[in-house]
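Sequence and structure are no longer studied apart. To make this concrete, we show below a single chain and its fold as tokens.
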Amino acid sequence: MAKRALDTLATIVTRFGAKSVNLLVFLIVARQLSLAEMAAYGFIFSTTLIYSTILDLGTRNSLAVFIGKEPALTHDYTRSGFFLWLVLSVLGVPAAYLTLRASDLGMAPAQLAAPFSILLAAMLYLRMMQGTPLGTGDIKLFNRSELASRIALLIGTVLLLVIPGAFTLLGAVWALAISQVAAALYLFAKQLPAIRVPSGKSTATALAWKLVSRGFLFMLSVLLMNAAKRVSFLVVSHTSASDDAGTFFACLLYTSPSPRDRQK
């Protein structure tokens, strides 16, 4: 009972700290980028959230449920989730490039494709593989993986401020991508012992299919919730001037939950 109370308190503190960092970073980015650049930043941010939800295929929820029911198979499920991520993250590269080609963000697609793809892959890893600590009840690991990206984002944003001429749209997107990579690498390092345990190919394939077949319908419901919040900005970004889209995204960020809250 005491452990549960402490975990709850730690989660509350983590959420408060994460939201505080998000607000601070948002204020800095809003002051440094033009409204048109904010529109482009918001477009990448929004589409990444939607794509990570789609590519997750409900794996996060399935990992939490199955590991909770079958703790003896934690390593097997974690390894299967990782191999699923390897396959699905590759799909994010053409998705990012084609999305940039189809949009008008004021920059060549090749310039933003790399940070966009890396941001999507890292965010997808966090989304999928946080299912393991949720399933095992390792709230400390879950909270630390949440905070890692916020701390890295704050450090990256401050560095952009102090380096003359570094705070550009491209720099801001790279800072966002690197912050997610830092958190993903932290979680990966903690899960590496489970991932490295050998298992039969048939077992890994069967568990991967089990994760996806259960999680797909859950993914659709989460996708609809995220799309309902994001589609308004995507419509505005295509039907209004860039400055208007940037203003709309700024208001949306200020009044919405944090990125990781939106992924749950």
